[in-house]
């Protein structure tokens, strides 16, 4: 029997131990970096709660779920390291040299987070290693004051109304040396974050169709251009105030602080502008791409030129409005040489004071983010005509009046007028039902296709099949059903010959308006304590629909809304929810045309701005009544004359209390005489301005009419 020299054996054991220690240190460094990342991510969960109230619940639950997973990982790590006993008492003695007969030591199950990352090869050492598992004392959870995720401002559920009870820790938690070192670390990411106040610019006011506004062209990019419709002196004063403020309060920002900016202030060498931070150019030059919201330019600045935008400069919305020329269609967007010439031609009018007329009929290349306008230059020429004359674009004919329209055809007009129609530009669908109806059945995937019916109520898979065993309808219909609100009562139309006090809420044509009857408003009833009643007045309805408790419970629609469906729609001008009826929708840009049934206003909104209308909001009848001015006709069939008469009618009646004399009533509208507070007739005032012609009329009494039959 031969023995290994003691010095040689010690050297082998030492080298083996040093190799394992180096591997262990690498794992420690890797684990420390992972724990730092988890710590940084957990500290950012609170910032994710600064969101829309409708998204608060989802974000809160998601953050709590991730935080629980992080807590489980750290707890397992602490428990595993607490079970390891100090190995300094192990005895290492020389052993006989039986290397050829050694077998690999069985691999122990993973005890800690480090071994889970990468398992090493088992050692062939026969040194005895005694590991005694000590009993871990139970720990009681203690609530710390600095662990509050959300601070509630409501008095019904606040930190004052819910007392916190602290419990003593009965045993001291065993912490490993790595955790002890982590407590001493300061994460540089937290030190680099900039404590900014939440700033958000308000939305731009909406411009009315067929109206003319004064403006100044500020920037041109291709076929799009940006116009300021407000006074340019206001924008100039804002820039002076920003320059004066940031000159005194300039602060150097590093790269990490710039990355978390949303709105910012940028310096171009002369003054400061308000900007929207887009992205950071990764080329080593520390250059940021910023969109200047008051001029429409997109430029690159060094990060030293950027500053956080403070709240005092967030009162006004962006002044620059993105526009495109209405009534024209560029010849070829793919010809870059032609686009450059078009842009060069339009750049000659930068800084020109002009007038813009908002067009209702957008061109095929327009979108909801751009306004189709007619730019009227100081010499009364339109920029649209100049572009067409220089052969940069083709003219698109504006819609003609009904009297001049072509005879009716039995196919879509685009198929008649456009001989170069390419059907390959149409959207493609795999499901024919979705292509025709816009509806895609989702429960068909849950129904077993192998089930053919029968008393066994299963397929050939038996109990292993997890799908529904339902016999499909022979026509192919499935079980998808979504209940929607489709009906809401109308207010009874007043009798002919009666007088009423009305409030005009919408002017939709030169002779038609919507009003609310004020004189028959019932007083709001205060219910008993604990009794919940549906709103009985329009004021209580609007107040209830826009309460914080109601806004966070609005549910998005499960299916694309159908024409005639009642929904809750957001009105962008005041950011409130109102009852609305769907009129039409366009799937390419996900826009829905709705009419606010209590006011008569018709507006296009996005699909994410409509919600499911609860049944309790349909108890109150629709408050808007459509009326036509009695004895009023238009002498011209020109749409421009109609638009002018509509503007004058809006000046005389919009949002004003008037006296209405009911002349006659139809199925859904009434003919009325409207008088202002001074007793002057609205129709006579329109006729005095040569907007309309007056004809004779008389009151039509229909009180003796028993019923009316609608003939097909």
Automatic annotation (TrEMBL):
Entry keywords, A to Z: Metal-binding, Zinc, Zinc-finger
Which superkingdom? Answer: Eukaryota
Q: Name the InterPro entries for this protein.
A: SNase_OB-fold_sf (IPR035437), Tudor (IPR002999), Tudor_domain_containing (IPR050621), Znf_CCCH (IPR000571)
- In this protein, which residues make up the domain named C3H1-type? 442-472
Could you tell me which residue ranges the Tudor domain spans? 560-620
Quote the cellular component terms of the Gene Ontology held in the record. cytoplasm
Signal peptide annotation: none
Q: Give the Gene3D superfamilies listed for this entry.
A: 2.30.30.140, 2.40.50.90
- The zinc fingers classed as C3H1-type run over 442-472
Q: Does the keyword Chloroplast apply?
A: no
Task: Output one GO MF annotation.
Answer: zinc ion binding
Task: Tell me the PANTHER family matching this sequence.
Answer: FI02030P-RELATED (PTHR22948:SF29), TUDOR DOMAIN CONTAINING PROTEIN (PTHR22948)
UniProt protein name:
Tudor domain-containing protein 1
**What is the protein's species of origin?**
Bombyx mori
Lineage, opening ranks: Eukaryota, Metazoa, Ecdysozoa, Arthropoda, Hexapoda
């Amino acid at each position: 029997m031969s023995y290994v020299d003691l010095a040689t054996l010690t050297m082998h054991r030492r080298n083996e131990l040093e190799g394992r220690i180096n591997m262990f240190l690498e794992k420690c460094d890797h684990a420390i970096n992972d724990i730092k990342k988890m710590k940084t991510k957990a500290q950012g969960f609170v910032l994710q709660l600064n969101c829309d109230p409708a998204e608060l619940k989802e974000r809160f639950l998601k953050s709590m779920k991730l935080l629980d997973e992080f807590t489980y990982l750290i707890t397992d790590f602490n428990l595993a390291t607490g079970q390891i006993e100090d190995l300094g008492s192990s005895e290492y003695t020389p052993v006989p040299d039986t290397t050829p007969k050694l077998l690999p030591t069985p691999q122990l199950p993973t005890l800690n987070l480090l071994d889970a990352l990468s398992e090493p090869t088992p050692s062939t050492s026969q040194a005895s290693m005694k590991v005694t598992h000590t009993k871990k004392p139970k720990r009681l959870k203690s609530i710390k004051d600095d662990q509050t995720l959300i601070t509630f401002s409501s008095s019904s559920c606040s930190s004052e109304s819910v007392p916190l009870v602290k419990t003593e820790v009965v045993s001291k938690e065993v912490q490993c040396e790595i955790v002890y070192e982590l407590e001493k670390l300061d994460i540089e990411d937290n030190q680099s974050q900039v404590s900014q106040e939440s700033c958000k610019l308000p939305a731009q006011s909406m411009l009315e169709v067929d109206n003319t506004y004064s403006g100044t062209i500020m920037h041109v990019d291709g076929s799009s251009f940006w116009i300021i419709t407000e006074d340019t002196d206001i924008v100039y004063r804002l820039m002076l105030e920003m320059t004066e403020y940031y000159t005194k309060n300039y602060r150097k920002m590093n790269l990490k602080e710039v990355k978390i900016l949303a709105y910012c202030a940028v310096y171009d060498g002369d003054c400061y502008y308000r900007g929207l931070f887009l992205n950071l150019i990764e080329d080593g030059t520390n250059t940021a791409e910023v969109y200047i919201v008051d001029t429409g330019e997109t430029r690159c600045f060094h990060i030293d030129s950027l500053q956080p935008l403070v709240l005092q400069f967030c009162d006004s919305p962006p002044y620059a409005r993105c526009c495109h020329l209405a009534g024209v269609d560029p010849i070829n967007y793919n010809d870059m040489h032609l686009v450059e010439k078009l842009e060069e031609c339009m750049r000659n009018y930068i800084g020109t004071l002009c007038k813009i007329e908002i067009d209702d009929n957008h061109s095929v290349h327009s979108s909801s983010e751009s306004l189709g306008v007619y730019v009227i230059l100081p010499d009364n020429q339109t920029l649209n005509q100049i572009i067409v004359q220089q052969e940069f674009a083709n003219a698109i004919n504006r819609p003609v009046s009904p009297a001049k329209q072509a005879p009716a055809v039995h196919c879509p007009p685009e198929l008649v007028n456009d001989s170069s129609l390419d059907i390959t530009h149409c959207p493609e669908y795999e499901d024919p039902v979705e292509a025709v109806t816009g509806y895609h059945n989702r429960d068909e995937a849950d129904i077993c296709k192998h089930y053919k019916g029968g008393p066994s109520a299963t397929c050939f898979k038996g109990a292993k099949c997890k799908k529904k065993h339902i016999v499909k309808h022979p026509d192919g219909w499935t079980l998808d059903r979504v209940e929607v609100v489709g009906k809401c009562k109308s207010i009874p139309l007043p009798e002919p010959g009666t007088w009423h006090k009305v409030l005009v809420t919408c002017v939709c044509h030169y002779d038609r308006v919507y009003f609310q009857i004020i004189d028959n408003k019932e007083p709001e009833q205060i219910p008993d304590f604990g009794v919940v009643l549906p709103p009985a007045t329009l004021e209580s309805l609007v107040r209830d629909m826009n309460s914080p408790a109601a806004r966070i419970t609005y549910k998005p629609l499960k299916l694309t809304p159908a024409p005639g469906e009642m929904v809750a729609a957001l009105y962008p001008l005041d950011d409130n929810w109102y009852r609305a009826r769907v009129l039409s929708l366009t799937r390419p840009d996900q826009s829905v045309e709705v009419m606010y049934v209590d006011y008569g206003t018709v507006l296009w909104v996005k699909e994410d701005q409509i919600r499911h209308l609860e049944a309790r909001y349909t108890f109150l009848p629709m408050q808007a009544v459509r009326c036509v001015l009695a004895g009023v006709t238009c002498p011209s069939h020109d749409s421009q004359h109609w638009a002018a008469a509509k503007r004058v009618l809006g000046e005389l009646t919009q949002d004003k209390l008037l006296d209405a004399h009911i002349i006659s009533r139809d199925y859904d509208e009434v003919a009325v005489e409207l008088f202002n507070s001074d007793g002057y007739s609205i129709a006579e005032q329109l006729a005095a301005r040569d907007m309309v012609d007056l004809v004779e009329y008389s009151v039509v009494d229909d009180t003796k009419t028993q019923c009316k039959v609608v003939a097909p």
